[in-house]
Design a protein that fits this description.
This protein is α/β, with parallel strands linked by helices. It folds into 3 domains: about 70 residues, 2-Layer Sandwich (Alpha-Beta Plaits), CATH 3.30.70.80; about 300 residues, Peptidase S8/S53 domain (Rossmann fold, 3-Layer(aba) Sandwich); about 40 residues, no CATH class. About 25% of the residues lie in helices and about 15% in strands. Strands 8-9-7-10-12-13-14 form a 7-stranded parallel beta sheet, with helices on both faces.
Length: about 475
């Protein structure tokens, strides 16, 4: 786990929020360049204590408000060159109204740029691809297809006109990217501008990323809804503040699952806090491990309540490009996957097809997000611990297929959606965890309910403790343990 439970971390080292999959669309595994970047000049993030007034804080230090996370007392400010970055990072020690102060970081290009070069295929190939059989999707879909579940895809947006995606978009799609109006209903579209904005010699190298991620989540959970939240621009850049804002937005909009096929080499407190708040409300987070082919830990996949996903082929052999370490939660297919890509013509970046083939841990992660949706629909997953147990109890052992790889670096093994859907699940009413339902569980529920313990939060809306939670507990109690 990269993030340590501390109020403040030295972040002068390399930090980036970039594309974890490295957009390996050409069916060739490339090693990633180092994800890293410098702080955005003159920008900082302030988390205030309850009751503190950002206007007063800004006046006190000469800051200018740039952006706000509406549901949190968290603000992006300009230092206006009146304070050094080092001094800003220490503000939380000197000001009782400031709970945390950290710099805002921008991503460099995750590299290597591929300009979204897909191997183009047709819709038939998407529906019949080998990964479906490897995961057991046909059998799983007999019972569950993700109905009533929303998966937030925090990425480069999606193509809302794509025939496979157009009917599966949840209300509230939005963009938190530079030079785009958050109120523009079309701002979340996954498209190009034909300009090499980051001057790296590649144009629009991220176009299609989010569309492909969404298509793979829907392959596993075809009746789920996708909430697209665009944080990556067409060059693949974003900031830590935008990613955190997107996570809180997803939580506030009622997302059940959040997929983050993006990552950083350094932990960022604002993002770790956002994930933690979501987990407390029962949101399941999936994230890609990265494609450096080594033991690098990519954040937020390295958080211990995020399902960090490594990539394999369809038999369970670990992909040579996939990162592997003890933070891996599970492995999933990430080679020769066929998914949706934008239908718009972006020149050499995207010649205007609707399906394409791709490699990468970014594309393995949404397969796990889709499985989470099926288990949430079934009712076996209410919170992270349930999903963690599902992965551990139903994934296929692939140690023999990966000689020389530390078994701990394979997580639970190879994702098996068919087995997960057949899994009986935990005993949700067994709050004392002794496999017996009795008065002690009732008392544990009542104590937790009064204290606002997430384990007593059993019904929608999550985070609200009311009669619906009591009734849900009684339903689980009456059903007994499986």
């Amino acid at each position: 786990m990269l993030f340590m439970n501390r109020r403040h971390t030295e972040r002068r080292g390399m930090l980036a929020i970039g594309i974890a999959c490295v957009v390996l669309f050409a069916n060739v595994a490339h090693a990633t360049s180092s994800l890293g970047g410098d702080p955005i000049s003159d920008q900082g993030i302030l988390e205030l204590v309850p009751g503190a007034d950002i206007a007063e804080v800004n006046m006190r230090y000469g800051f200018t408000l740039l952006d706000t996370i509406e549901s949190k007392a968290t603000y992006l400010v300009s230092l206006n060159q009146v304070m050094t970055e080092d001094a800003f990072e220490l503000l939380f020690l000197a000001d009782v109204e400031i709970d945390n102060s950290e710099l805002n970081f921008e991503a460099g290009d995750a590299g290597p740029g591929t300009q979204s070069i897909f191997l183009f295929t047709g819709p038939g190939a998407y529906q019949s691809q080998p990964a479906r059989d490897a995961l057991g999707l046909d059998a799983a879909h007999v019972s569950f297809r993700g109905a009533g579940v929303t998966i937030a895809v925090i990425d480069s947006g999606i193509d809302p006109t794509h025939p496979l995606l157009s009917g599966s978009i949840a209300p509230g799609a939005i963009a938190f990217t530079a030079h785009q109006d958050e109120n523009d209903p079309a701002a979340f579209v996954d498209t190009c501008n034909g300009v090499d904005d980051d001057l790296d010699g590649l144009t629009d190298e991220t176009v299609g990323h989010g569309t492909a991620v969404a298509g793979l989540a829907l392959m596993v959970a075809p009746d789920a809804l996708i909430l697209p939240i665009k944080v990556l621009d067409d060059e693949g850049t974003t900031t830590s503040f935008r990613v955190a804002k997107a996570i809180y937005y997803a939580i506030d909009r009622g997302a059940d699952v959040v997929n983050l096929s993006i990552g950083s080499l350094t932990d960022v407190k604002i993002i770790a806090d956002a994930v933690g708040d979501g987990v407390d409300l029962g949101v399941i987070f999936t994230a890609s491990m990265g494609n450096s082919g080594g033991a690098e830990q990519l954040f937020p996949a390295s958080l211990n309540k995020v399902a960090g996903v490594a990539a394999t082929d369809n038999t369970g052999v670990l992909a040579g490009f996939s990162n592997r370490n003890r933070e891996v939660s599970v492995c999933a297919p990430g080679i020769d996957l066929i998914s949706t890509i934008p239908t718009v013509d972006c020149g050499t970046a995207l010649p205007g097809s609707s399906f394409g083939e791709a490699d990468g841990t970014s594309f393995a992660a949404p397969l796990v997000a889709g499985m989470a949706a099926l288990l949430i629909e079934k009712g076996t997953v209410l919170r992270w611990s349930d999903f963690r147990d599902a992965l551990r109890d139903t994934s296929d052992n692939i140690e023999s297929l990966n000689p020389g790889v530390d078994p701990d670096d394979l997580g639970a093994g190879m994702l098996n959606v068919e087995a997960a859907v057949a899994w009986v699940g935990p005993c949700h009413a067994d709050l004392v965890e002794n496999d017996v339902l009795d008065i002690n569980d009732v008392l544990a529920f009542l104590v937790g309910f009064a204290a606002g313990d997430p384990y007593s939060d059993m019904a929608e809306p999550r985070g609200v403790f009311d009669i619906s939670d009591v009734l849900m507990f009684l339903q689980f109690f009456a059903a007994g343990c499986p």
